[in-house]
Amino acid sequence: MEKKFAIPGERIKQLVPPMGGCFMTDRITVDGLKIGYMYREQPDRPEDSGWRFFSGDETQDYVDDSSHTAIYAVNTAANYDPDIIPFLETPAPCAFEKDSVSGKFSRVEP
Fold this sequence. Notes:
The structure is a single chain. This protein has 3 helices and 6 strands, in the order βαββαβαββ. It is an alpha+beta fold. It has a 6-stranded mixed sheet. The chain is globular and about 35 Å long.
């Protein structure tokens, strides 16, 4: 089944410089939810930024199903939720969670 993205590819704008790939779940890219949790780990390869983005409501079963996650440019993640941009240069390891009331990210233990 082909995915229908919440933001069509032609509407993706260059918001951040190229910095490699990231993992992002369909809850963001298909369902259109904002990023609620993100962490950065040491990348396995040069083209990997180390960033992993989640809406925050994914269950472990959802995340374990690889069809719900794909690799995207970090710029794509920034288009889905520009609130992540100030945190993208934070070195790994790090993690941030968005407060559901204020809508602001704060650092949490990875």
